[in-house]
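Lab notes, practical 5.
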Amino acid sequence: MTAPVSELLSNYLGGQWRIGTGKGTALLDPVTGTELVRVDATGLDLAAGFAFAREQGGAALRALSYQQRGALLGAVLKVLQANRDAYYEIATANSGTVKNDSAVDIDGGLFTLGVYAKMGDSLGDRHFLLDGEPARLGKDPLFQSQHIQSPTRGLALFINAFNFPAWGLWEKAAPALLSGVPVIIKPATATAWLTQRMVKDVVDAGILPAGALSVVCGSSAGLLDQLQAFDVLSFTGSAETAAVIRSHPAVTQRSVRVNIEADSLNSALLLPGEAMGSESFELLAKEVVREMTVKSGQKCTAIRRVFVPEALYAAAAQAIGARLAKTSVGNPRNETVRMGALVNRTQYDAVRDGLAYLKKQTEVLHDGATHALVDADASSCCVGPTLLGTRDAAGSDVSDRVHDTEVFGPVATLIPYRDLAHALQLVRRGQGSLVCSVYGSDPVALAHAASELADSHGRVHIISPDVAALHTGHGNVMPQSLHGGPGRAGGGEELGGVRALNFYHRRTALQASSTVLAQLTATTA
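Output from the prediction step:
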């Protein structure tokens, strides 16, 4: 499926579809270079659109209970499932992903939406949430304090990244809508088509109240200026852009609540005591290759640094390299291809530049340039997976670039360590990450390493032979678990089951007679 050349996609704002007044930005097929559609947000009345979402969409959502809003999410899910094939075609054309990689985005988004739809039933016929138990404020138990959480009377603005146009939409929108907060999505321009199409299908189905779900494609200029004190903002992207957002008057003067997911040098760690060829060793090698190649390494959770005992460095390089060599790269429409393209030429150039930068302090263990492209040529945005290495444990200390620079593509660095203390020190040089996976067979050692790494990671994925066929994957973000990370990862938190709703609620302490508080409890039963 290919949209007509130069078709200008509509924005949905203020309860109406609106075409931008500019020429727009072309979205291209990263393999063929064919122009697909154009996006533009020039001339939109942002102030009126934000006010409509805040006042109309917000009021309508808050009038519903969590259970009713969950039912709306369930209806949204059915609409998206009915149009799933079209989403796959758009992903192939616009993101250059093979079918399995498109599934990570599309089916991952639908699964997350389904989890939050079901959560509405568990939250029941309520309009706010109790937070903890009542607390006595004095000797007499009659006067107590009860915390509650109420949906914020603002909107949620989502500025999303290019790599997950489907999942990035629904992993944020599902808990926001369930909370009773209207949503405005600004997808990354390069892959905005899929996000826009999903929103269009939902809007056309007439499921959500007017103003509950909006989408603005194209430039984000002026969006942050519209935010008011009770709005919330969630951003996924570069640390540089995150710094600009944090310094915006909406944040510094109006105290808009912000969630940031930024750069992350995620790690995989093989614990000491594992032998070459052991099950844990092989699990590490398999997962590293999967994380390097799924979506061509364009995942915020992908493994960037691989830590192994110094004695296993050569064996790990050979095991990972042998698996990478079997990866076919090229046009995702060819059924023999296992890894598609980078999303556009800008990302292609960034990966090539990043590789050249890292190579100054590393050796090449597997060269992506050795992969012959299938049904694609040098003008495409396809690039083979590359494994770098720091040669020895001493090199792991002095090769600062591998601990400071994330190449957002199919690139990882193998890093040897002397002992566990050295390994933990090196992992922490990532300055805070979304996820670290730990491989080993000793439960005591695994538990110890995980507890040591917990403070610098949003998630620690512990893989032992007994869960080889069960674990959900280093890079797969599950809605039941926290997604986010400290430090350079942005300091944000998303998902984590019902915890995701916290971002869209305001916590308040109600101090009253226990009789009054009993009435409050009764209304939320």
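Observations recorded by the TA: The longest helix spans residues 99-123. Residues 1-5 have pLDDT under 50 and may be disordered.
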